[in-house]
Every structure is written in structure tokens, then in C-alpha cells.
């Protein structure tokens, strides 16, 4: 494949992202559902690609001239590789430039969210693996790793699902990625819809005094275009463009984080091969993708920055823009290359996983949030509900609706939660290692382990944080 073909594929996917934004502006339903333009653009590309338009033309005319829809095979091949690359950028950016507070403050403020978030994530593994060993594997002959898909898709989201493509391939379960991407889409849709339903319910019941009714949402929130009077700077020029362009400097930090992660991962692959791997035929790191280790690379860089960056040349908003750009392109490319055939062939397991995940999240939110979160349980719990169904961005969006003026500690507690939450689940180390664990140890030992963890965090939330419940 020529460099021109790769460059043109990137140009076209950028145009598709703009088309997604235009569609969102023109379709009020998409605004009410708060669908990201990247998902809309991804669906647009999916419809005009090989899975829909290509199949329709071939079925109607018998001609394979449009086998890839309006796109080319080279474009499709490039897009299929983008998610695995860009997810490293997304996770490398998580902690660079992020001023990590004292652990005591993180635990005091964000502890209830940590306990609730972990309880839900471990419960998703428990329910998923139970489904796998009782129904999905014996009846539908799916790989036992299918039990990890609820947490990978709902908490991890499209980025994590796409980033684990090589892992699914390595264990001989390539359809797992398409199922995970489909479930991630269901997760975001259900997170927004169920969240809005709960917000309306809370408004009628008077559960909170901070609630902004969904009908009163600002133009900024509905259209996704920030009005002039509300606009903020996307970042600061911390370095002189004469010496180095600030964006290039920050991109270099992200690249360095990924490179450090790569070295760490390669070291453990080598160590495993030289020790327990060859001795006991037990291999884990060869299945672990790079992106959670790139996050560790970012943490290492941030530790160095905290000790040496006296001039404060690292600008967190600029890092966030790099992360957001990578995530948007990642989602478009992942959705554009989604295999509807795989989902159609596994429609019953797909529906079972989706329904189980949605019901579990709703029940856990209603039952645990009031008992674990000592104050403002609804405002703070909405962030966890959103994240458990549709990644962190959905949780933040729901909190902004329910508490637009930040009169509660919801947003701060949610941010602190990520420091102790993201490194492990929701795309972190355990999320990436869950599939190798199931492959190497079998689903039952993993089920026992996650059940113990679920109960432990459940008790921590209810007996430790819940007993300190205060009146609002």
C-alpha cells in the first residue's frame, strides 16, 4: 500500500467526521440523545461501506465492483488498523499534565465512587462469565472470553474494544472485537437514554435541588457548538513556536509515553518467556495490548514532570485536545469497519449480553448508589451510571445535566475516582488482561476471583463509606 493511499484514507475519515457533525446539527433526535459526532460519522461510513451498501449492490446486481461501497479497499484496510494505533494515544494522555492530588484527599472525596465503580465493573465480569459458562459457550459454542465483553464494551467503550483487536485475534476469537464494538454502541445509547429517564424521574420526585430539567438544556449542550460568550481556550502556548511548536512538544510527550510503555511491555514479554512462561507454559503478557502499558508510561512521565517542570511547560488542556482528536478518529474508524455479519451471526448472544449489562447497571445504581455515597448520591451516582454503560464521557455529560453549576462534589469526586479506577478497569490493566486470564486459567477461577473482588468492594462501599452517610 502506498503512502498516498494511507494519506487519502486519513483525509476521507476526517471528512466523514465533519459529516457526522453536520448530521448531528440537522437531526434533533441525535441532539436529544447526545450522540457524539464520531459515532454518527462512523454509522454513516458503515452504511456506505462494504457491510451495507456493498452487500446491497452485490445482492441486487451480482456485481462486486462496489464490494467496499463508495470507499476503496485501501481505505478500509487503513481504517481497520487505526483503532489499535490510536488507543495507545488515548491512554498515554490520561495522566500527563494531570496534577495528581494527595492520596488521602483522593480517597476521602472520591472513595465512594471508587467503591461503587469497582463493584459495578467486577459485577459485569461476574454476570458476563456466568452467562459464558452456562449459556454462551455450551449452547452457542463461543469462546469463554466472551464473558469479558460486558465490562470491555460498557466501561471500556469503543476505544478499548477496538484496541483489543489483536488480543482477540491471538486467542482465535476475532469476532469478539465486532461484538464488543456493537455492545459499546448499545452501552452509550442505553447510558444516555436511561440517564435522561432517571433525570426526569428525579425532577418529578424532587430528589435533588441542583437538577436542570432536560428540556431546559443550553444550546451548547444540544448542538455541541459552544456559543462565543461561553468559549474557553483549548490550551496555552507554553513553548515558543520559534523553538518548538507547543502542539508538537506535547505530541512528543505522548509519543515518549507510548515508547516507554512499549519498552516495559517488551521487557515483561521477554521475562515471561525466559522464566515462568517456558517453565510452566503460562503466557499472559504476549496477549496484553500496548495501550494500558502506555498509560503507565504516561504516569512515569507525569511523575518526572511533577518533580522537574518548574516552568510549567506541560499544558493539560493541550494534552486533552490530542487525546480527544485521537478518540474521535478512533471511533469513526472502528464503527466504519464494524462487521454486521458477525453480530448477525451471533444475535442471540449479543442481545443476552446487552440486556444483562443494562439491567445489571440499572439495578446496581438504584440499589448501591444511595447506600454507598454519603451525600448527594443521585448527582454523584449519575457519573458512575453513565460510565458503567457508556464510558466516562457519558458519566460527565449526565453530571453536567443534573448539576450544571457544580454545586455538589460530584464532578470532583468523579475525577478523583479515575486516578484509582482507570489504571485497572475500564480499559486499564485488568481489562486488558482479563482475556489472557480466562484463556490461561479458565473462566471458573477468574469468576471466583472477580466475585471475591465484587463482594469486597461492595462491603467497602456499604459498611465503610455508607455508614458515614450525611444529610444533604
Number of strands: 0
Q: Give the fraction of residues assigned to helices.
A: over 70%
The rounded distance between the terminal residues' Cα atoms is 62 Å
Determine the strand fraction and express it as a percent band.
under 5%
Q: Output the helix-strand order.
A: HHHHHHHHHHHHHHHHHHHHH
Query: What structural class results from the helix and strand content?
Result: mainly alpha
The description of the largest β-sheet is: none
Radius of gyration: 22 Å
Poorly predicted regions are: none
Summed over residues and divided by their number, the pLDDT gives a mean of 87
Overall 3D form: globular
| Helix count from the secondary structure assignment | 21
Care to describe what's here?
There is one protein chain. The protein has 472 residues and is an all-alpha fold. 72% of the residues lie in helices and 0% in strands. The chain has helices at residues 3-26, 28-32, 37-47, 50-61, 73-92, 103-136, 149-154, 157-163, 165-170, 175-205, 219-223, 246-274, 276-280, 291-308, 316-336, 340-345, 347-372, 377-402, 410-421, 429-441, 443-465. Helix 5 (73-92) runs antiparallel to helix 15 (316-336) and helix 10 (175-205) packs across helix 17 (347-372). The termini are far apart.
Question: Layout of helices and strands, plus pairs?
Answer:
Layout: H1 3-26, H2 28-32, H3 37-47, H4 50-61, H5 73-92, H6 103-136, H7 149-154, H8 157-163, H9 165-170, H10 175-205, H11 219-223, H12 246-274, H13 276-280, H14 291-308, H15 316-336, H16 340-345, H17 347-372, H18 377-402, H19 410-421, H20 429-441, H21 443-465
Helix pairs in contact: 1-3, 1-5, 1-15, 3-15, 5-8, 5-14, 5-15, 6-17, 6-18, 6-19, 6-21, 8-10, 10-17, 10-18, 12-14, 17-18, 18-19, 20-21
